[in-house]
Structure to design on (471 residues):
């Protein structure tokens, strides 16, 4: 197999993956703050992280993967001022912060399943608050100082702070709002003490007063507790590269009393953008996975859309692009239908170059767009033993996660929530269209197709299922 090369954001270079523990890969991915639904831009990070994990498994490593659940501590911006997202959501919805966290964690995990993202550990930040307090206490003397508002990390006490982001401004990459008494603009909160006369639903006792942990500390503590420091790979969205991850690295350096950044390789996926700009929950106008389903698009079409672009490239979201991905997915599923009842096994020399191309592609910093072309070629290959073909497709799909041999084209044909036309009406129209085509009355055939299109039904000629929905 080809050596796996991954782009390390810390060194800005491709590096050959060498596990710190023989035969094992340990990966930590920054998880969601569970105060709202995750938008499809958020979900790109988890398709990327899942693809990384699948490639590591493909390479023969025993994978240990953690995606944390931030159910406390994250403010409404990356500043050290403002409302806690959990507390704010609880107040606006008239529920407890604990109920808010539980609900949105369940929805997030359901979305992961719909995207065929493999199960990994999902530890909750609130289960590690005691460990966060202990960690903060250990680094306080040399690396942190107290203010009335909490405990703050002094970024001047660690070498090369912000190297991951490569900050160029005087204020540093933290871009954290001014807090009275801070030594440096980039210093950030390790603990936020509840102001006198106020109370939070989520708060704990600490040497710095009753309050809640800062956002950044949870990932340092949880990755150390669950994977050990150092570990192999840390992933997250590119926005984390600028603030959250530099602060996480600083905490890790302080705790280890050395240059240990926590992870050896830091990897970041780029944004999903639409024509209005980067998708963000802060605007209140964002697309969820359920919104795609409600418009008739299967979640696996979104997964394929992500795989068609390199994870480090911006990906523009359009309904047309998603529709094209759905059509491509359906054609793939149609191509493997004859293999569903075939037992995988055997080898065929024609497949060896394809496997090599596929391996080279995913080994080149997870180049799934090129890997998909090898899969396409395998799907269309003729005059080969069926068992060998199924085995190759299974092997490739284990990396891409499209469930080609499991999902049916009927399952991919989702009815949009806004559709009003009944299936019986569609079938009747298609019967009339077939009769018109048989009689070579192509004008009538085209008219029926246009009538269906006006009601949200796209007819794909040559499709054995007869019709496709598309709003």
């Amino acid at each position: 197999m080809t050596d796996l090369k991954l782009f390390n954001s810390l060194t800005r270079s491709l590096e050959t993956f060498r596990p710190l523990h023989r035969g094992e890969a340990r990966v930590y991915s920054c998880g969601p703050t569970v105060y709202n639904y995750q938008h499809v831009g958020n979900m790109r990070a988890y398709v990327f992280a899942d693809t990384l994990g699948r490639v590591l498994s493909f390479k023969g490593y025993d994978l240990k993967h953690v995606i944390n659940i931030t159910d406390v501590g994250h403010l409404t911006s990356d500043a050290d001022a403002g409302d806690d997202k959990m507390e704010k959501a609880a107040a606006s919805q008239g529920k407890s912060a604990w109920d808010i966290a539980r609900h949105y964690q369940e929805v997030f995990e359901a979305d992961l399943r719909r995207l065929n993202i493999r199960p990994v550990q999902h530890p909750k930040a609130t289960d590690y608050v005691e460990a966060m307090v202990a960690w903060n206490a250990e680094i306080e003397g040399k690396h942190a100082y107290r203010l009335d508002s909490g405990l703050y990390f002094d970024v001047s006490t660690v070498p090369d702070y912000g190297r991951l982001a490569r900050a160029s401004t005087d204020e540093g990459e933290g871009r954290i709002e001014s807090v009275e008494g801070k030594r440096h603009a980039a210093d950030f909160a390790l603990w936020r003490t509840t102001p006198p006369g106020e109370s939070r639903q989520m708060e704990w006792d600490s040497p710095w007063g009753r309050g809640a942990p800062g956002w950044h500390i949870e990932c340092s503590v949880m990755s150390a507790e669950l994977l050990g420091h150092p570990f192999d790979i840390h992933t997250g969205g590119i926005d984390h590269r600028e603030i959250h991850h530099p602060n996480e690295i600083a905490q890790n350096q302080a705790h280890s009393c050395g240059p240990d950044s926590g992870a050896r390789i830091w990897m970041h996926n780029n944004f999903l953008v639409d024509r209005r700009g980067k998708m963000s929950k802060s605007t209140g106008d964002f697309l969820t996975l359920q919104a795609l389903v409600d418009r008739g698009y299967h979640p696996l079409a979104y997964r394929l859309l992500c795989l068609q672009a390199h994870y480090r490239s911006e990906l523009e979201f359009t309904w047309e692009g998603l529709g094209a991905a759905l059509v491509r997915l359906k054609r793939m599923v149609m191509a493997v239908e004859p293999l569903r009842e075939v037992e995988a096994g055997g080898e065929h020399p024609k497949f060896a170059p394809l496997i090599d191309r596929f391996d080279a592609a995913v080994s080149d910093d997870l180049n799934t767009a090129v890997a998909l072309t090898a899969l396409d070629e395998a799907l269309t290959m003729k005059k080969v033993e069926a068992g060998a073909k199924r085995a190759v497709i299974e092997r490739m799909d284990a990396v891409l996660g499209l469930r080609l041999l499991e999902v049916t084209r009927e399952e991919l044909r989702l009815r949009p929530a806004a559709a009003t036309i009944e299936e019986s009406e569609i079938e009747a129209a298609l019967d009339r269209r077939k009769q018109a085509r048989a009689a070579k009355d192509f004008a009538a055939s085209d008219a029926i197709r246009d009538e269906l299109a006006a009601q949200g039904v796209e007819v794909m000629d040559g499709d054995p299922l007869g019709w496709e929905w598309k709003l």
